[in-house]
Amino acid sequence: MNRPFITREHLKVLIKVLKSSCDEFIAPRREHLTDIVFGDAKTGGGELPDYDGNSVISPRAFLLPQTEPLFEIKSARRSELAPIEDKRTRVFYGVRPCDIKALVLMREFFIEREFADEPYKTKMGRSTFIALACSKRCSAKAFCDEMGAGPVAKSGFDLQMRAVSRGYIIDIGSEKGEKIVGENKRLFKRASPQDEKEAKAVLKDFTKEPEKIDYKKLAKTMANDSVEPSVWDDIGQRCVICSGCVTLCPTCGCFSVVDRISGDRGERLRYCDGCPYAGFTRMAGGSAPFPLHKDHIRRFFEHKLNHDVDRYGTPSCVGCARCIETCPGNISIRKLIREAVK
Amino acid sequence: MMKHVLTTCPYCGVGCGFYLDVRDNRIVGVIPSKSNPVSKGYLCVKGWHAHEPVQHPDRLKKPLIKQNGKFKEASWEAALDYVAKRLSQIKAKYGPEALAVCTSARCTNEENFLMMKFGRACLGTPHVDHCARTCHSATVSGLNQSFGSGASTNSYDELPFMDCILIIGSNPTEAHPIVGWRVRTAIDNGAKIIVCDPRRILPAENASIYIQQYPGSDIALINAMINYIVTEHLHDEKFIAERTEGFDELWEVVKDYTPESVKDITGLEPELIKKAARLYATNKRSCIMYSLGMTEHTVGTDNVMSMANLAMVTGHVGKEFSGVYPMRGQNNVQGACDMGALPNVYPGYQPVTDEAVRKKFEDAWGVKLPSKAGFTLTDMMQKAIEGSLKCFYIIGEDQVRTDPDTHMIERALKSLEFLIVQEIFLSETAKLAHVVLPGASYAEKDGTFTCAERRFQRVRKAIEPLSGKTDGEIVCEISRRLGYPIDPDPKNALDEMASLTPIFQGVSFERVDTNGLQWPVPSKGHPGTPVVHLGKFRRGLGKFMPIKNKPPAEVPDEEYPFILSTGRMLFHYNTGTMTRRVSNLLREYPRNFVQMNPADAEQLGLKAQGSRVKVKTRRGELVVAAEVTDKIKKGVLWMPFHFSDEPTNVLTNSAFDPVCKIGEYKACAAKIEKVK
User: Which CATH architecture has domain B2-48?
Assistant: First the structure.
């Protein structure tokens, strides 16, 4: 049977329904001029039902904010603590496939493996993800298709929408998604063969010159330390430790914690941390296992392109190009990949 | 409730744009704005963490009044009444000239305008200044004499397309990283870079020519470049003839400065100077970028005018893709200067001594205004010690930690009858105050900052002021109590400023809102001015100033054999009151250190990296860790000044430039001892 289908008119109704079902409706919104950023459209409105490009920052801004309070310290002296929990229900609307793949990897990291990160797990458990497949490349630097992370998500969403001229073809990715379609039957029709044909054409158009990266070969090259040393030297001289890459990367999950105390009271925060900082791996007493800066940045790339292939069977770079577009050293992970597999 | 509030970064003078990510009145992060014309989605590590200090528990939230040597919290009413009472008492007893106002390069244009107006119109004192004194006052005085305008001649976006960038006394990748990004892009586009710096800074790694001159030998270096350029006929004779005056006088001085003759002063091989001179002169699109490495000298003004000479000799100014770029150090140090927070000018650099200008302001403000120029910040400290100044009102500046010769500054502030400090954290200067008024950070107010490319940009309120009042409101409340009501509304303040200032006539919140606006903006519909001096310098003809090399006030000798230079580093900002409250930044560099050359370290017998050493000058001493690195020239020491508990400025020299009164932070004599 053909997949469900929704017209643009009915989509507006569905958005209304979804908004009333959650505490926050996180959707792409146009901020100043051309800036698109995920924000809460439940109270403020302004959601873009469809849009070109991608949000400056991925849904991680909500699931793992740059700084996040973990608990309140009511009395440091008496060790009195009180939880600070984010129990809001959220619908994430219009999430791009690259960010959906990132969420799948982050779920592995934060929930599925050795231990579960409670704040992250709580938020994920209360979130619904509605993906919007890409009809065109979000930026000239993006390469999701090369990384197998776009333009259409394979899994990790509750619903996925693919734009065609009449409206959107819907992929159902979970029971939650099934339920949304089921409860709003009147809004959905079935896609016509013409719609399906169109969707296929869009996909073909996007990946005109597929230059799939052999990520296993890439991982091996990195594991064998056979990337030209001059590549790392160059990267080391370019990086000015802005931390933009690890802050925007949808698959960077590293954080540290700090207590912000005033007198006897305060709170424990966690904050985004990661590879570029020398202090990230510096040990007490000042010794550092990797004293050279180029090796700090190399760690970032090794994680994405080598270690995670080993751990999850897939690279954890999703080709969103956020790190490239925010790097004041003009470092490009895509260029690195090209040079590495050359 | 969540919102994204677009605003301008509060750190250096580049002026990057980002959104503050606000959830339930808590600022949880920073999101770069890709549409911002300055930063285009790029930020440095300080910008990425600019939200963290705002709601730090150490923030001052209530006024503090000192009683028996201890601070006691007070209500706003009580504190403001007390401040107003003391101000009028001192004014009545000693006259208005016993009072001085120090405005803040960290505050908005509107607030600087209000503070300046408060000082001159309400208090009636001519003594208004701010920290530009210690960073780019030399730029204002130098470029003004050479070109007729003391600000950057060109815009950031020209940088990636330059053929040659001469970077001297500036460390863009650390101190102005998003301009550093443009330098990086220029390199990637094939530009040739010349770096002149006593330290081999990051851009030097990719430079075509790296020149490691001694601190304080810059005039000799630049004069030698001009000498070679003219001798080799690489100068732009047409430009010199049509656009400038005074070339013969310049040559009269510069003709003696052959590259060979400056070898001992600069410590440089003549060939290197020649190569650099040729590269800069012969490329079509060449510019000069400089910063405090040039200004913070007793010859700061002369240094700046030397660079102007070099630019004019080669015709690399007054057109697109050329020019002289002073990289401003603070978010709004350009704006604070522009707003007339200087002792000799009203907004837009209108002289206080010009009767017509003064009359215009007297008519607008309905008071008699002081007819002479006031004291500079440097002079204020001396006058406090001498006793003629009795009261300072300091807003958002930590002189005890930022001004050279800390012990002298402390003596000056302690000798005041009354010291008011308005701050967001209890700084070392605030600790000396009689009253501390809790100010508001950038995230708690509306207004504008002006960045180093003369661009007004909006600052927008993300949360309510933690103390309940913005800095502008505090000043206006004091003014009201003194019987001179001022409207604190930032929009009205900017409109009033624009109406009184020819070069800012067209500036308003509406015009600045979308993409900012680069001054001069001489009329309402004027589109702004990305490149200044096109076709004609602001002063008419560009003026060559014949300048001779002068050594720093203090040169190495047998007792103090090293040259100590100081500066800023990537992870911290000024006295670190904000950056040391950001976990990631503090962890990178938690403590002070001194950089020294391996040869010097060996001579001292230092065994390990990080050994404790004592740095001594004629003014003070400090024990810090040694960072041994070949990036610094032999015989030179370098220290950052960000660490309040290990304060470098106990060592620096308060000798100052006679024109602009900037202190000599970049060169003094020092010695170093091993700590056992």
Answer: Single Sheet (2.20)
Contact B435, B79 (CB under 8 A): yes
Location of structure tokens 């930032």: B490
Q: Does residue B105 surpass a pLDDT of 80?
A: yes
Q: How far is CA B227 from CA B235, B279, B310, in A?
A: 10, 14, 10
Average pLDDT (A17-43) is: 97
The ranges assigned to domains in chain B are: 2-48, 64-135+331-518, 153-327, 562-674
User: Does any CB of chain A come closer than 8 Å to the CB of residue B76?
Assistant: no
What's the token pair of residue B545?
């100033």
For A268-302, how does the pLDDT look when each residue is reduced to its tens digit (9 = 90+)? 999 999 999 999 999 988 888 889 999 999 999 99
CATH 3.40.228.10 corresponds to the domain B153-327: yes
Q: Residue A209 pLDDT > 70, yes or no?
A: no
* A37/B34 touch (CB, cutoff 8 Å), yes or no: no
0.90 surpassed by complex ipTM: yes
CATH architecture label of B562-674: Beta Barrel (2.40)
Question: How confident is the model over B117-135, as pLDDT tens digits?
Answer: 999 999 999 999 999 998 8
Closest by CA position to A234, among listed B175, B206, B178, B161: B206
Sign of CA dihedral B269, B275, B276, B278: positive
At the topology level of CATH, where does B64-135+331-518 sit? Rossmann fold (3.40.50)
A329-340 confidence digits (pLDDT tens): 999 999 999 998
Closest residue to A240, CB basis, from B21, B28, B570: B570
Question: How high is the pLDDT of residue A211?
Answer: 73
Asked whether the beta carbons of residue A262 and residue B58 sit closer than 8 angstroms, the reply is yes
